[in-house]
Amino acid sequence: MSKDLYGFPDRPIKGWSNLSRWLGTCAILLLTGLTMLTSVDVVARYWFNSPVNGAFELTQLMLAALIFVALPLTTAARQHIEVDLLANMLGDWADKATVLFAGLASMLVLLALSWRLAHHTLKLAEDGAVTNSLELPLFPVGIIASLSCLVSAALVLAISLNAMKKG
């Protein structure tokens, strides 16, 4: 599949640049926080024999948030893994059909994932689920994950529709 086929971000979605900037800033802050937490924890553990209390839980929550904050950015940049074994053998029409089919399938999977994550997040919030030692609530990460999948599904749809319009 040729990169110029997609037509995105040449014609960006309205409001995407602001959301993209905000998500990028969040990803940078999460990655910086993870790096600092890990560094301080390692130094405290080996030099002072006193690890950071709850570092494991914080790392888990921050890593989960980082993955889902970066998902729409990766989707918009078309940086997901693609295998185009037949792209050179197929004509333009088949190439576009493949892009549309893959986009629609990806969108449906992301929508289903968003729905299931939202359902699970509601259960976490109702149950008052928290981490073991720091007792931090778990539902905020679920909200981030569900919204991230929803935004990614919208981006996949926009990319697929732009691919069909182009050419």
TrEMBL record:
- Enumerate the UniProt keywords alphabetically: Cell inner membrane, Cell membrane, Membrane, Transmembrane, Transmembrane helix, Transport
- UniProt-listed GO biological process terms: C4-dicarboxylate transport
Localization of this protein:
Cell inner membrane
Q: Which Pfam families match?
A: DctQ
Which residue numbers delimit the Tripartite ATP-independent periplasmic transporters DctQ component domain? Answer: 34-158
Q: Which GO terms describe its cellular component?
A: plasma membrane
Membrane topology term: Multi-pass membrane protein
GO terms for MF: transmembrane transporter activity
Transmembrane residue ranges: 21-48, 60-77, 98-118, 138-161
Superkingdom per UniProt: Bacteria
Chain's role: Part of the tripartite ATP-independent periplasmic (TRAP) transport system.
Its subunit composition reads:
The complex comprises the extracytoplasmic solute receptor protein and the two transmembrane proteins.
Similarity section: Belongs to the TRAP transporter small permease family.
Q: What is this protein called?
A: TRAP transporter small permease protein
Could you tell me which species this protein originates from? Cohaesibacter gelatinilyticus
